[in-house]
Every structure is written in C-alpha cells, then in structure tokens.
Amino acid sequence: MNVDDGQNFSDIKTFYIEAPLNSTNAVLAQHVSSTITKNLIAKGLTPSTDNNADVSVGYLPSTSTKEDGTTLNLGLGTGSFGRSGGISIGSIFSIPVGEQTTLQQSLQIDIVKDGNFIYSASGSIDLKAKDSISVQNALDELIGTLLEQYPQRNSLNK
Q1: Which of 125, 158, 98 is nearest to 32 (CA)?
Q2: What is the pLDDT of residues 73-128, one digit of tens each?
Q3: Angle in degrees, CA 100, 63, 135, rounded to 5
Q4: Burial of 143 (0-12, 13-18, 19+ CB in 10 A)
Q5: How many degrees, rounded to 5, is the angle at CA 88 between CA 64 and CA 23?
Q6: pLDDT at 155
Q7: What confidence score (pLDDT) does residue 67 get?
C-alpha cells in the first residue's frame, strides 16, 4: 500500500471507476467495480462521471495458481469442470487444478488525480473454493483490506 503524503485528500469529493483492461469475466469485473464503489462511498466520496470526477480509480484483477513453487497468472475468472477443478480463461482453454495447487485472487487498485498516482494498493487472497460466489466473497474481503487505509473523507481536516 502506498499513499502520496503530499496529497490533500480533503479536496477529493468524487471518483470515477475505469473498466479494467484485462477482464475476462464481465460479471466479476462488475462486482469488483460495485464493491470498490461501496467502499469509497463509505469513505465519504461520491461516484461521478469520468469528466467531472476529482479522481479516477483503476484496478487490475488476476487469478494465479501456485504449484511446486511455480506461478501461472490468468485473467479474472474461475470455474469448475466436473470432478476435477479448473481455471477458465474466456472459455478458450482450461488448466487442471490438482491437490498440490493453491488458487489465489490478486487485485491492484490505483487512484489517480491529475495524472498522478495518489493511492495504490495491491494484495492477494487464497481462494478456498473455485465457484463464483466464493470468488466474489474473497474479492469483497480483499477490496475492503486494500481500501482500508484510504483516508476517511468526513474525518479529514477541512
């Protein structure tokens, strides 16, 4: 997590969320966007249009598997296929997930004002299950953690 210490966060009232460049699952991308929005509203900010927002929020989701010390990064989206689990990339192909594999959901959130990064946070969470509801719940937890340090607007000195 990194915050621009020179930024006056009390001046920031509105935000706009950019669509991710790497999304392969529109439903999960919309869920991430919605969850980021809820977290920033809780911080005292108001959603706005791209042209009128004080800051823009970008995010980069990815799913990765780790097996025997190797990592494979994939776009946003998971699924299961029959008896053996798997990860799907835009329904193009799947990679079997074996007993020794850990599936992780990673996310980076960047907040930009006037072309400068003022807040950046990234992290990952191990997924206990590969179904979409479990992934959504993990993303909710991860987003809350990543935005936890963003300054609360109504507690800032004005």
Answers
A1: 125
A2: 545 444 333 333 334 333 333 444 445 566 778 889 999 999 999 999 999 888 87
A3: 90
A4: buried
A5: 70
A6: 55
A7: 62
Tallying the residues shown for the chain, one arrives at 158
Q: What DSSP assignment string belongs to 98-126?
A: -TT-EEEEEEEEEEEETTEEEEEEEEEEE
Q: What is the dihedral of CA 103, 112, 2, 120, to 10 degrees?
A: 0
Cα distances from 102 to residues 60, 96, 130, in angstroms, run 20, 12, 11
Give the pLDDT confidence score for residue 82 in this predicted structure: 35
Angle between helices 132-147 and 26-42 (to 10 degrees): 30
Which residue blocks in the chain are alpha helix, DSSP H?
26-42, 132-147
pLDDT band at 66 (very low <50, low <70, confident <90, very high): low
User: Over the stretch 18-35, which tens digit does the pLDDT of each residue have?
Assistant: 988 776 678 888 899 999
**Are 41 and 47 spatial neighbours (Cβ–Cβ below 8 Å)?**
yes
Given a contact cutoff of 8 angstroms between Cβ atoms, the answer to whether 12 and 119 are in contact is no
The pairing of strands 55-67 and 46-47 is: unpaired
